[in-house]
Request: fold
Amino acid sequence: MTVTHNDDAISPQEAAALVDLILDRYHAVQRAEVPALIRLARQVQAQHPDAPRELVPLLERMRVNLDAHMQKEEDGLFPAMRLAEPVSAVAVEIMRDEHDDHAKHLRDLQRLTNDHTPPTHASLEWRQLCAGTRKLADDLVEHIRLENEVLFPRFGA
Ligand SMILES: [Fe+2]
Ligand SMILES: [Fe+2]
Reply:
């Protein structure tokens, strides 16, 4: 059998390290932090009649979307990528489209939280909520960047 050498090909070690970084640093963290933010947002809503009403439903939508998206990556693309095997270009395009949906939700989150800035009269919980939504936004931007600009291109997608 002839094996052609491709200088751009990602090694299984490199692919596995990148996928594992994304799983540990972003997927696992988001799965823990988004539900905690929803609980905090409910608390803030109960404390402050002037807190944005749309925040809890938005965070709940983000949790459902993110969980479904991460599960698709973990069941579909990542096992093949960890072995540096070829992946479906269509599957990657779908992941990129879903990243665009996440980015739209992040813009909504930024607007609803006044750019993650609590008002001067905010409770400790409201301040913690804003710090948490800011971290979620920063993490999700970097998570998407790593997949769109570092991981997927290594598979020609
Ligand atoms: Fe991901
Ligand atoms: Fe993703």
